[in-house]
């Protein structure tokens, strides 16, 4: 479609916040909880992994997310993927989302490649019928023809990654989410990944890429968003934001100041400390 | 400082189709989950398949274990107890019908806990209807349960317990047991994510419940004073719903049947509502 130049949005985040409830004392047992609940001693604080973030990604556009570890980049991806819900603000997504996060998360070592293909495909929301139709193409793309009926535990990690990539990218998604992963396998296979990636872009797929690799972000994305301590520091053309990010003072910058100490933990250094790895 | 481009969205743009996902306009979670589960129904089949294939892949007897397990228990119990509990007709049929229904419930709810807590990697990374793990556990349990009916019929023939037309009531019994099991499975699995000792407590509770219910012993051995206890035990009515049409060859008592069906429906609704209300938090808890 010739809509690539139009500002039609694919992803729209408006003033989004994600809250994590951190218990003051970690109560992990039911017994302890019951005792504390009776004594009215179950307390926690809300910490914000992301706050006040707004941005839009247009159809066919590629946005890079950069920032230090624990800044909230992966949390933003999870919001778009519907893994997490915003505690405040609004997330809208138009179209089918394909997460390219961690190949092999849904694989089982004792199943064959073929069985894993169906398991992994349905985990990603594809129907059995769709997988039947694309089975041959997936196997060919992953270059797995000779091994597809062998158990996955006999595969090399590169083979697993190839199969995962082939399944996740078999159908062109409207939105592709990538966390530090773009191309996998050896050089020739990486070239195939890039070829597919570029074909998706040409077809109108929007991309959100989280990466610490400035060169990769610069080559793949037109726009870049710099995230730090759960807040959007800057968003704009890739070269500009990447340049500013590279020149940031490295010794614990004072920005951004907590804007809402009432809800925040008044502990900006602790923001995102509890978050799963990003 | 964080000033952004293109944040404002003046009204609805007529060029756009309805958003595929809008966090601000969500249907009630219980309903949303139901729709999502239907869309992911092929995944249920794959998860059931995965479990069965991986469990039996390297065993000689394979799926036969599913049949041999309750049969073995029945055999042991028959040898040990058939004199003591000789009150009724065929004790093997009595105990096997009770055990099949009980094992379905007990094993499946424990499996639901295991499935959900071992799926953290997936739940943290991709979107899935989170009830799918309990549903898949129930699917696996149901398959084993239905397979177990085959040797049961064999034992009935051998021990001379006739197969009566009351058998036709069994789909209702099995549906009620399934609903109850799914409801309890959802409840305990979401509880287990919040409190790590849930599995241990449940592991103690289950045998207690087994011995409180006339499953391996006939109700007639209990003193009359214990009647109220059995009557108040919903599991007893659910087991009876399955056992009576087979063992006694008649339909369950209407009152007992009503309690069983009511309990099953209530457990399913409660489990579904509680689970779906908490499902969004799972990604940051598991």
Descriptive account of the structure:
The complex is a heterodimer of chains A (278) and B (286). Chain A is of the alpha/beta class and 278 residues long. Chain A has a domain at 98-172: Helicase, Ruva Protein, domain 3 (Orthogonal Bundle), CATH 1.10.8. Chain A is 31% helix and 24% strand. Chain A is built from 8 helices and 9 strands. A 6-stranded mixed sheet of chain A has the order 5-6-7-3-8-9, sandwiched between helices. Chain A has a 3-stranded antiparallel sheet with strand order 2-1-4. In chain A, a hairpin with a 2-residue loop joins strand 8 and strand 9 (231-237). The longest helix of chain A is centred in the C-terminal third of the chain and has 16 residues, at 187-202. The radius of gyration of chain A is 21 Å and the shape is globular. The two termini of chain A are 34 Å apart. Chain B is mainly α and 286 residues long. Chain B has 11 helices and 1 strand; from the N terminus they run E-H-H-H-H-H-H-H-H-H-H-H. Chain B has helices at residues 29-39, 41-56, 64-81, 91-117, 120-125, 132-159, 170-194, 198-212, 227-231, 234-248, 254-285; one strand spanning 21-22. The radius of gyration of chain B is 23 Å and the shape is globular. Strand 4 of chain A pairs antiparallel with strand 1 (21-22) of chain B, so a sheet runs across the interface.
Write the layout of secondary structure elements.
The complex is a heterodimer of chains A (278) and B (286).
Chain A: E1 9-23, H1 30-38, E2 44-58, E3 62-66, H2 73-80, E4 88-93, E5 97-100, H3 113-123, H4 128-142, H5 157-168, E6 175-179, H6 187-202, E7 206-210, H7 214-220, E8 223-228, E9 231-237, H8 238-246
Parallel strand pairs in A: 3-7, 3-8, 5-6, 6-7
Antiparallel strand pairs in A: 1-2, 1-4, 8-9
Chain B: E1 21-22, H1 29-39, H2 41-56, H3 64-81, H4 91-117, H5 120-125, H6 132-159, H7 170-194, H8 198-212, H9 227-231, H10 234-248, H11 254-285
